[in-house]
């Protein structure tokens, strides 16, 4: 943001490794509930495993290699949080400048361990706005409402 205006944004279009569904799949494979246990387990890690920042196939392979080598589950879960952050920064942000006002939205932003990984890597505070998981839908609804000429039959606009 500059002077209250969004000046840049980007989404991960190339790889599923930065998505909540990737985290959810890996948590299931580790028999961890993504909503109830993942954050707590990740935060209990003493040394998050380096699982890389590549695509899901390689990260998943690294996860199970580390598991077979006896890495503690908390370090694997913590490593997943960091891997998502590194994947996004290296594959999506690339060399673009990251400002000081960083907003993180979408379902993955609900995971406090991923937010914490971003904050630690960037050494910056990340803002996760209320209702972050549906902000895209809210924005699309506002654009649709503003683009509607005349009265709409959609009752939701009146709310």
TrEMBL record:
InterPro entries: ATPase_BadF, ATPase_NBD, Dehydratase_Activator_Redct. Residues 3-144 form the ATPase BadF/BadG/BcrA/BcrD type domain. This is ATPase BadF/BadG/BcrA/BcrD type domain-containing protein. It comes from marine sediment metagenome. The lineage of its organism: unclassified sequences, metagenomes, ecological metagenomes.
């Amino acid at each position: 943001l500059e002077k209250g205006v969004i000046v840049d944004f980007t989404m991960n279009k190339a790889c599923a490794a930065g998505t909540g569904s990737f985290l959810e799949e890996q948590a299931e494979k580790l028999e961890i509930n993504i909503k109830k246990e993942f954050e707590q387990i990740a935060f209990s890690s003493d040394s998050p495993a380096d699982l890389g920042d590549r695509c899901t196939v390689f990260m998943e392979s690294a996860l199970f290699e580390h598991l077979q080598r006896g890495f503690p589950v908390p370090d694997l879960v913590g490593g997943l949080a960091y891997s998502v952050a590194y994947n996004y920064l290296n594959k999506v942000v690339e060399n673009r400048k990251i400002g000081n006002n960083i907003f993180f939205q979408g379902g993955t932003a609900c995971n406090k361990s991923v937010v914490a990984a971003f904050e630690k890597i960037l050494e910056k505070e990340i803002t996760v706005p209320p209702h972050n998981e549906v902000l895209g839908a809210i924005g699309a609804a506002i654009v649709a409402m503003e683009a509607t000429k005349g009265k709409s039959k959609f009752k939701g606009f009146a709310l």
